[in-house]
Amino acid sequence: MRANYKKRLGLLLISGLLLFLFCTWSPGTSSGVDIQPRQWGQIQKLLEGKIQDTTSGYHDIAYHIKNDVACHLAQNTCVCRADEETFHLPFSDLLVSRVWAHNIELAFLESHPDPRGVKRHRAQEYSRFQKRSYNPADVLIVAEANNPLQYPTQGVEVRPLKTIIIPGLGLKEETGSSHTVYLTATLGTFDVAATVDRVSIKGEGEKHMILSSPLLSALNRQLQFVTYTNTVFHPKTADTVQFSTDVHQSFFTIKVGHGTIPKLYNSGYQREYNISALVTIATKTFLRYDKLKDLIDSIRQYYPTVTIVIADDNEHPQSVTGPHIDHYIMPFGKGWFAGRNLAVSQVTTKYVLWVDDDFIFTANTKVERMVDILEKTTLDLVGGAVREVTGYTVTFRHTISVEEGGEEGDCLHIRNGYHHVIEGFPNCVVADAVINFFLGRTDKVQQAGFNPRLARHGHLEFFIDALGSLHVGSCSDVIVSHASKIILPWSKTDSQKAYEKFRYSSSSADSDVHKEDFYFKNRFKCMTSH
Amino acid sequence: MRANYKKRLGLLLISGLLLFLFCTWSPGTSSGVDIQPRQWGQIQKLLEGKIQDTTSGYHDIAYHIKNDVACHLAQNTCVCRADEETFHLPFSDLLVSRVWAHNIELAFLESHPDPRGVKRHRAQEYSRFQKRSYNPADVLIVAEANNPLQYPTQGVEVRPLKTIIIPGLGLKEETGSSHTVYLTATLGTFDVAATVDRVSIKGEGEKHMILSSPLLSALNRQLQFVTYTNTVFHPKTADTVQFSTDVHQSFFTIKVGHGTIPKLYNSGYQREYNISALVTIATKTFLRYDKLKDLIDSIRQYYPTVTIVIADDNEHPQSVTGPHIDHYIMPFGKGWFAGRNLAVSQVTTKYVLWVDDDFIFTANTKVERMVDILEKTTLDLVGGAVREVTGYTVTFRHTISVEEGGEEGDCLHIRNGYHHVIEGFPNCVVADAVINFFLGRTDKVQQAGFNPRLARHGHLEFFIDALGSLHVGSCSDVIVSHASKIILPWSKTDSQKAYEKFRYSSSSADSDVHKEDFYFKNRFKCMTSH
């Protein structure tokens, strides 16, 4: 009896152990998945061929170029030259803001010890970047005319490894003895959520499924229940699906991705804007503690409890204290954009207000107005105006565009001005870059980021890096004052002299960083600006 | 003569002044553009109606639900409960990792002074977020069957305010006496880059253009030259275009946007990986200067010149010096994620290696292996393994998914495990979250960001915020050692005791922040995990 009992206990323990191992075995696919960056799959090649067929033809029919339209088409090989001036007057350079072309490629390569090597390296890095960024949802697809297939052309999404019903599938051909459709995918499988009589299905749960029926209406009813399950995990990609009959083909994309998890800020819900709950003021300081103190005192007159974040890279940092002040000490001379990136990285409120350490808040510095426009429009960032001691107010509005340039790089175009006035906000416009006094959505400004390599100066670089991701505005009626720049030489303080010496001394190293970032990091060959 | 001369001079000056004003007048549209967040335009309403027509019908045909497929379809109202266990054994909780369901909504609202108010506020913020994120390129479009129109269904892009030729337009109907097509847009205008004889065009340069011809081939040749010009500026949106005949309609989207400016890193091009040029090591330290010193010494054994960035929020910061060390002082107790966000904000190399301040590098800590996998695959971040003093090695691999939940919020599911092995890298897998020892692409890690509100603890929150934007991997063969956690009570140092007291003391304020972030910021109602 005892031996039996021991045997049974032994078996029970072994089964328990096996069960334990089975249940705790980490779920995951054991066969490897290739995640090298790639561009062309089987279906894509098929697609490419079909597009060539559909978009060519009619070569025998003559045409007459319409120059005023054709001249606006991108050449894909931008040329580095300023716009031609339409007239030349004496002193025209003084009267008209002339546009200059800066050949970035030349400026960077001529001073580089190995121009061919760095050119090749940049091409390699860009090629990798393109392959990593490649998304099948961006590829050109042309819908064939007179196609009896009905299918979704956009808007179909599935979360990774989940299942959806594909909406809108149908076949509208002439009724006959038999109707058949084929579905093929690469990153997932097909199935049906319900079955319909008189429809035969082959390949349920596989990447290739065939449905057929003698009854067209039954097949169409069945097509309302076709499902797609993503089986090859990827956090953000797309699967190109081929949906066809024996004669016709169609292609559409199913986006595969986790979806965007929102970042909402709980800032209270009073009737009036609670600036302390909504806004953090951020600044960078260097060698100007006196000006910084003036700034803080002026802020406290109007916003006594708003948090002020200060990034400080002085060689001998002084203490900056007070309620709602967060003072961060950086290694000496780390620089302007490193300080900006640091300060912004610490903000926990919905909005961040960037100010320079030599600004002075006045009764016209109504942050509420800036909050109002960001609350009510799609803007991500709104600049204000900075009033110099002369009374002149600067908004520094610029538009920025990038023109494709082929292998040598793209062309960056920067112009003074703005795109349009904002309806409902008559003193506000939309632009691409604004002055260094702005309110921004914290999450969007953090995502855009300030390149910490830019130590001594930099401004438009932030807006260039943010191009396409920030919707930028500018309001001329929110004004901050600039502590005077016009100081007579004999009245400069020691700290003023030290600051100017550090900041404005010509540094070829600093200029090299800018050239390198434009040439290599952003891949520009040319910049035109005023 | 003098009077005449004065008159002419006067006129010349006035003309010059007018000319000056004309040429320097900032270009921009003076009529306001409405940039309030909105969802439905005229064309979208038309589209919605058509989709309803195409996707309904056949209601009289019966179907039989296929349960094993239908059960996987998202309900859009996730329920907050753990997966049902299929068996119950004694001590099963010990044998099997049980899944728990945490009702985030309940936990947060029951301790909130104004649950209805905060619920309403969250709904309001979410609604604004949805309207701001709305993109016409995500709306469902279904291609009509047997449509004589040929048109592009995806892949058409234009830079803001620029012009492109729309590829793939065509009409393939039976030849007749007259053929007419209509084009309508909202954010741009149509024109032709070339004209073709016998085709009449009405509305060139306008939002609505009509082309017609008695010759079908001539019309098709003309359609090869149709251009679209974006006229309403927006940095990132899409225009839904309607392309139709008198009988048939089609809809497609033209994406309008600046395009992505690359962020390429110039890290040299030697045969072997130059870790100092490619990688910056980042860490946060608090009350453990002794361990930090051990970490630095161990790093220097293998990587003598790699830059180490240290974020330090000690109350009484000590000096941490040495070549290639950047030491940042934060306000006291700012916390864990604020420190992580700070450290990462300062990195200028292509990759950033996150380490805790109590790690020890050994001969198995081959950063080159991590660089290799990021150079060769689409991964954005790869975790390693941390070896405890017991010899046990932890990779902390987790998968994360989000299930839609309707108005109350979504459900977050976290499980131990990974998705699949990586081909070519047998010790590496793809997951959604990994351990606190990882190498990441600096620009992608900076964009994901560490929420600076999380002061005492936090880990998975980074990966949750990054869900969908980071491709995450984990390799078990790159190992760092963890300075012992198993310390006998009588041998703890004073700093050890102080650290544990600070970090592990129960703080309801800290826990409140986590609850609030899950409920409000990320809009979850439930979390299930092991």
Q: State the shape of chain A.
A: globular
| Weakly predicted, low-confidence segments of chain A | none
User: Taking Cα atoms only, what radius of gyration of chain A do you get, to the nearest Å?
Assistant: 31 Å
Give the helix tally of chain A.
15
Largest interface: A-B, 175 and 176 residues
| Quaternary structure type | homodimer
What's the overall average pLDDT of chain A, rounded? 89
N-to-C span of chain A:
100 Å
The chain-level structural class of chain A is: alpha+beta
Largest sheet of chain A: 11 strands, mixed
* Percentage of residues assigned to helices of chain A: 25-40%
Number of E-type strands of chain A: 30
Report on the structure:
2 copies of one chain form a homodimer. By secondary structure, chain A is an alpha+beta fold. Chain A is built from 15 helices and 30 strands. The radius of gyration of chain A is 31 Å and the shape is globular. The termini of chain A are far apart. In chain A, 41% of the residues are buried. The model of chain A has no long low-confidence stretch (mean pLDDT 89). Chains A and B meet through helix 1, strand 1, helix 2, strand 2 and helix 6 of A and helix 1, strand 1, helix 2, strand 2 and helix 6 of B. Strand 4 of chain A pairs antiparallel with strand 5 (149-154) of chain B.
